[in-house]
């Protein structure tokens, strides 16, 4: 009988915090600057430069800890993690080993078997390293220190996950919590959220953990899923062949769908940690902790309950809208302005999501304002524009955030409410289509729809379809 294996997974999630400046200096954290332009003597490790801690980093770390049920270490400090690598300018990284700021929390996820708690061992603050760019043509490597000193929190889970699905559910829950806090945008494609996967396998029923490997270079949920499955199979094959799994760090190549060994896995002794002598310990008093706790936002679960009670939206709408903080913010701000929650939800669930998908964009990239969406809804409700014109204006608004009423006036898109003009247009359409008129009078309902369509065409779409429909029937029956 073939052996059954269980996969054991823990994650180290690095999150770039949304501060304007770096953790120990005043350089910009903006993504995408020209190489080595967001730098100074501190973040490039120049001799004699001294770090000064960014208070906002501590508050973001505390907020994430509180939101994930962690206990906050009231007296914590920074340590030096020593290693030599070209993208590490000081030849050490300022991190936290002995007294991390948050410990012993958990995140609850939904699985096919029900709810499951994933333990968080600790959350610690640290600085990011620079970035190496390898030029294969010239056979050289270049270093960009813009990222050096960007503030990170590292969220270290317990080895509580057993499948790729559980890992993705945990990461999605974590990402949503952090986005709701405003602590990071958590964009995997830009590296502001990165996950290292620690994975081992063991025979089913065995309590002792197997030898784990750590996989790096994972920048999408799909890559993480493929890497987990690939590494799981690799370890099982080694064990089936009677070989040992070696504790090491491996790099995942998503194009080849395979991993390769980078180095043997270090432990804390290899890094020669010691308290950083240039940074004083941090004392978190009750007042400071309470001030951060008071600023915690309404999270998704509470928001979903409120949306049901306050706005009476369908569960499907609520699920989608609250699943993205930018969509939830857009919904609430627009609803506040126009007082039409279901109409706002319809525009988000329909045209907004359609255009985002069509253009391959994320909700964070939405350019139109809640004020302009509210005005568009009001124009439609007052029947100053019809539905098809509203969609036409929205497609322009989606790209350029135009003011809808001004755009409608400028392009002659407002609904024509001149009943005399409408009546004469309908009569002309009926005269040009006697067969359709006869068909309607003989009981063929579809014929009226054709005549309505022809009238809308003659009016260049600038009529109220409901009014046109009503008048077509009235004239045909008269």
TrEMBL record:
Reactions it catalyzes: L-aspartyl-tRNA(Asn) + L-glutamine + ATP + H2O = L-asparaginyl-tRNA(Asn) + L-glutamate + ADP + phosphate + 2 H(+); L-glutamyl-tRNA(Gln) + L-glutamine + ATP + H2O = L-glutaminyl-tRNA(Gln) + L-glutamate + ADP + phosphate + H(+)
A Pfam family annotated for this chain is GatB_N
Q: Which GO terms describe its biological process?
A: glutaminyl-tRNAGln biosynthesis via transamidation; translation
Q: Which residues form a coiled coil?
A: none
Q: What is the lineage of its organism?
A: Bacteria, Bacillati, Bacillota, Clostridia, Lachnospirales
Q: What name is this protein filed under?
A: Aspartyl/glutamyl-tRNA(Asn/Gln) amidotransferase subunit B
Q: PANTHER family under this entry?
A: GLUTAMYL-TRNA GLN AMIDOTRANSFERASE SUBUNIT B MITOCHONDRIAL AND PROKARYOTIC PET112-RELATED, GLUTAMYL-TRNA(GLN) AMIDOTRANSFERASE SUBUNIT B, MITOCHONDRIAL
Question: According to the UniProt entry, what is the EC number of this protein?
Answer: 6.3.5.-
List the HAMAP family.
GatB (MF_00121)
Which UniProt keywords are given for this protein, alphabetically ordered? ATP-binding, Ligase, Nucleotide-binding, Protein biosynthesis, Transferase
Q: What does the UniProt record say this protein does?
A: Allows the formation of correctly charged Asn-tRNA(Asn) or Gln-tRNA(Gln) through the transamidation of misacylated Asp-tRNA(Asn) or Glu-tRNA(Gln) in organisms which lack either or both of asparaginyl-tRNA or glutaminyl-tRNA synthetases. The reaction takes place in the presence of glutamine and ATP through an activated phospho-Asp-tRNA(Asn) or phospho-Glu-tRNA(Gln).
The protein's matches in InterPro entries, at most eight in alphabetical order, are given as: Asn/Gln-tRNA_amidoTrfase_suB/E (IPR017959), Asn/Gln-tRNA_Trfase_suB/E_cat (IPR006075), Asn/Gln_amidotransferase (IPR018027), Asn/Gln_tRNA_amidoTrase-B-like (IPR003789), GatB (IPR004413), GatB_C_1 (IPR042114), GatB_Yqey_C_2 (IPR023168), Gln-tRNA_amidoTrfase_suB_CS (IPR017958)
Superkingdom of source:
Bacteria
